[in-house]
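Hi R.,

Quick one: here's the Ribonuclease P protein component sequence you asked about.
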Amino acid sequence: MVKRQQFLDCYEQGRRYHSKGFILFVLERPVPPDHWRVGLAVSRKVGHAAHRNRVKRLLREFFRLHRASLPGGVDIVAVPKKHLDVPGLTLDTLTRDLEPAIAKIQADQERRSRQEGP
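And here's the predicted structure, written out as tokens:
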């Protein structure tokens, strides 16, 4: 995701999923294509530029590694919380933090698709 309006739509209309260090805003698109889109919003509250860049690199790598398990037809905006421990953040800790939220997103999508039904 690149455009400001895409981020705003996700913030305003999307569902929020909280983990220890992140908030994930998830917006289902009306005509769900097979792929998903990710936006990263890492503010200066997280730290100086090197810390912000590290968080973005790790988030991109997490979503790249988990692309098969992510639901299709959604926009996801990942926002780190202010108290995130960036120097101690590794891909393993990020994965342990975000996997339960991703599982919850999948479960909610499956439940909604079953409710809509044939």
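Helices lie at 4-13, 49-65, 91-116.

Cheers,
M.
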